[in-house]
Amino acid sequence: DGDVYKYYADGEWKNSSSGKSVAIINPTTRKTQYKVQACTQEEVNKVMDSAKTAQKSWAKTPLWKRAELLHKAAAILKEHKAPIAECLVKEIAKPAKDAVTEVVRSGDLVSYTAEEGVRILGEGKFLVSDSFPGNQRTKYCLSSKIPLGVILAIPPFNYPVNLAVSKIAPALIAGNSLVLKPPTQGAVSALHMVHCFHLAGFPKGLISCVTGKGSEIGDFLTMHPGVNCISFTGGDTGIAISKKAGMIPLQMELGGKDACIVLEDADLDLVAANIIKGGFSYSGQRCTAVKVILVMESVADVLVEKVKEKVAKLTVGAPEDDCDITPVVSESSANFIEGLVKDAKEKGAKFCQEYKRDGNLIWPLLLDNVRPDMRIAWEEPFGPVLPVIRINSVEEGIHHCNASNFGLQGCVFTKDVNKAILISDAMETGTVQINSAPARGPDHFPFQGLKDSGIGSQGVTNSINMMTKMKTTVINLP
Ligand code: G3H
């Protein structure tokens, strides 16, 4: 009971001097599963100091050596997929198989980033002056990419391992040091992942992981003068961070209300399969989940029936049993989802299944005939509840999609590829998928949100570039 996971600083596992801990509640049992250290601001200061020192010599470490260490960490991570996945199951109720997939995907991401890094960072630019009017060929300009310094990484609960390494690997290959603040639900999975980097033998202080209460160290971290870049994935907190952060680059991904536009000529079996995968995997707790279906009235009855049949087959229960639908991350999250469901009920949505909840477990629910005056038409439930809005024209669908404050991804289903491209152009989202559900991966694809969905672009290449600056030397010839 007294066991509290240590935090990681200066290449060592440490107890916080606060003597306090933060409890991690298992979403399934709703009992305390683990405890982590509640780090103090003083400890954050120390971590920042050593991150700064470690970064100076890391930046001078040859690129191929940095890559070698990352490949080593990736292999160790994959070797330890079972114990890390077990933590994901207990901390965030991720279905057992998906938990393993998250760790394997993370190992692949680290390796890919190492390879991509040696290529793109191994290349610079050479310019001569006489291409600009009025100049002779007397200036040679050499440019290359240099690291930013200390990167602060804040991943969300739904991918505490994968969305941590998607920040750690590009930061390190580019010659930065990294401070990780994991989400409370998912902190122990993240600490295990960090241990794999520890085993790989990175220099002391280059990577650290501080755990604790957002109220105590959250703002302190994001406003810390030692931080040179913040990479954040999560909810509204990101908007608050962006207002407080100083003059540093920000990379943010902040949720979405991904629309699925279904045209009359769509392959409805394909659509139904993608709605199930897109809307209900990890119980809808993905920023890229399908969060509203906008279907042409003439095919709506058939589509809703097909989705209903598939919803009936989803297994509901414990993540250990690898059920499709598992408890949502917290009681407050379940209460929030229930609020959206009640609002839809009062305003006359048609329930395709009975609403059922047991603790944090919410049964999958499809709501038909949703109208724009219902909260569920606009808000993201981050749970297994999916609204269907019937539309009479494609323009109506595009209008609904673009009226959202979010703009992460969207998808359109039609056999007419010309129409699909025009719709994609009209949708104000960072990505549009044609004939498939939204998704971030493959992880080297660019990934970005418009409007309240984010700042900057992710994906392996973009993240490496974002965590660097151009440095130029000009040789002036006599
Ligand atoms: O939750 C946000 C993630 O970036 C979504 O990733 O599309 O691989 O589930 P995913």
Automatic annotation (TrEMBL):
Its EC number is 1.2.1.9. It is found in: Cytoplasm. Signal peptide: none annotated. The active site is at 253. Transmembrane segments: none annotated. The keyword Ubl conjugation does not apply. Belongs to the aldehyde dehydrogenase family. This is NADP-dependent glyceraldehyde-3-phosphate dehydrogenase. CDD domains: ALDH_F11_NP-GAPDH. It catalyses: D-glyceraldehyde 3-phosphate + NADP(+) + H2O = (2R)-3-phosphoglycerate + NADPH + 2 H(+). Residues 13-472 form the Aldehyde dehydrogenase domain. GO terms for molecular function: glyceraldehyde-3-phosphate dehydrogenase (NADP+) (non-phosphorylating) activity; lactaldehyde dehydrogenase (NAD+) activity. PROSITE patterns: ALDEHYDE_DEHYDR_CYS, ALDEHYDE_DEHYDR_GLU. The keyword DNA repair does not apply. GO terms for cellular component: cytoplasm. InterPro entries: Ald_DH/histidinol_DH (IPR016161), Ald_DH_C (IPR016163), Ald_DH_CS_CYS (IPR016160), Ald_DH_CS_GLU (IPR029510), Ald_DH_N (IPR016162), Aldehyde_DH_dom (IPR015590), ALDH-related_metabolic_enz (IPR051020). Keywords: Cytoplasm, NADP, Oxidoreductase. SUPFAM superfamilies: ALDH-like. PANTHER family: ALDEHYDE DEHYDROGENASE. Pfam families: Aldedh (PF00171).
